Amino acid sequence: MRGIFVGFVVLVALVGVRGGNLVLKGKGKDKQGEDQEWWQSSVLYQIYPRSFMDSDGDGVGDIKGITSKLDYLVELGIRSVWLSPVYESPMKDFGYDISNFTNIDPIFGTLEDFFEMQEAMKDRGIKLVMDLVPNHSSDQHEWFNRSLAGEAPYDDYYVWVDPKFDDEGERQPPSNWLSVFGGSAWTYREEREQYFLHQFLPEQPDVNGYNENLIQALSDVFQFWLDMGVDGFRVDAIKHFAEIEDYYQDEAESGIPDLPEGNYENLYHNLTTNQQQTFDVLRRWRLLLDAATEASGSPKYVEINYFK
Ligand SMILES: *[C@@H]1O[C@H](CO)[C@@H](O)[C@H](O)[C@H]1NC(C)=O
Ligand SMILES: *[C@@H]1O[C@H](CO)[C@@H](O)[C@H](O)[C@H]1NC(C)=O
Ligand SMILES: *[C@@H]1O[C@H](CO)[C@@H](O)[C@H](O)[C@H]1NC(C)=O
Ligand SMILES: CC(=O)N[C@H]1CO[C@H](CO)[C@@H](O)[C@@H]1O
Ligand SMILES: [Ca+2]
Ligand SMILES: [Ca+2]
């Protein structure tokens, strides 16, 4: 009880006024009284843009809506915001299917609105963490369109694999891999006479985590938002980034009884999750963030959600 009371007093003392705006000042202290960085001492407040605040009355929350509520966040003592996806998207998976990683979806606003929000956050001492989704893109992304057409260098941006043929000569997917949402993780496309991999929806083709051009393209996406001035990223479910490179190898049955056919839990996923390549790529992105920390003089942050 006493702890809660003391915490409240400290919080109020940190709120001041600058240029007419409420603003958070000072740093948290650890038990030894040393300064802590913002991610060590503040609550990361998640904003789900769709439901947070609608500025134009169309029934969907948007970026201008968030900007209008920043003083409220300051009053709450919020020093950092994690923004769920606002990227351009056909919204098959509520924005986790991205058709342009460096643009804002029109339902949420424009890059200009984003920049305004970002500046208003900086004015108030609020850090911004973007949700980034590197394991796949939307099938409406130009990369996939060009990949489908076999256009270099996009042809290997996704996981394309030749079919297997059974004893009757019937075309079969390369392996028994399952989508997290159920059913085969492979979908055939006549255009390439090949299957592509999707660990989630067929509208979310998996990127090829071994392709150097693709890794660079995603690094450019991180850099784009760093250059826009964001303070970090949140990367969900990174374990699905890379798979074993032998796409014809079946995953073992889990033996869990009474599951419907095609249910993800029917298989072990040691061939499609937590591959060494995923961690090697993460290390490269860490270096990119370190460089941005050095260049900007303010520490950049990545939160990796990792589920075994
Ligand atoms: C993605 O958005 C950016 C704006 O940041 C724009 O310049 C670019 O042309 C878009 N790319 C595609 C493929 O639409
Ligand atoms: C690729 O994009 C072009 C131009 O937008 C479009 O005409 C074409 O149908 C697309 N192709 C596929 C396979 O989606
Ligand atoms: C994956 O897990 C299965 C079941 O435990 C095991 O038999 C197989 O050897 C594992 N494969 C690899 C590559 O670790
Ligand atoms: C690392 C990564 O991109 N993870 C995403 C994989 O796909 C799911 C489902 O769309 C997202 O929730 C994760 O963020
Ligand atoms: Ca709106
Ligand atoms: Ca993947």
From TrEMBL:
<dbReference type="InterPro" id="IPR017853">
    <property type="entry name" value="GH"/>
</dbReference>
<dbReference type="InterPro" id="IPR045857">
    <property type="entry name" value="O16G_dom_2"/>
</dbReference>
<protein>
    <recommendedName>
        <fullName>alpha-glucosidase</fullName>
        <ecNumber>3.2.1.20</ecNumber>
    </recommendedName>
</protein>
<keyword id="KW-0325">Glycoprotein</keyword>
<feature type="signal peptide">
    <location>
        <begin position="1"/>
        <end position="19"/>
    </location>
</feature>
<dbReference type="Pfam" id="PF00128">
    <property type="entry name" value="Alpha-amylase"/>
</dbReference>
<keyword id="KW-0326">Glycosidase</keyword>
<comment type="similarity">
    <text>Belongs to the glycosyl hydrolase 13 family.</text>
</comment>
<keyword id="KW-0378">Hydrolase</keyword>
<keyword id="KW-0732">Signal</keyword>
<dbReference type="GO" id="GO:0005975">
    <property type="term" value="P:carbohydrate metabolic process"/>
</dbReference>
<dbReference type="InterPro" id="IPR006047">
    <property type="entry name" value="GH13_cat_dom"/>
</dbReference>
<feature type="domain" description="Glycosyl hydrolase family 13 catalytic">
    <location>
        <begin position="46"/>
        <end position="308"/>
    </location>
</feature>
<dbReference type="GO" id="GO:0004558">
    <property type="term" value="F:alpha-1,4-glucosidase activity"/>
</dbReference>
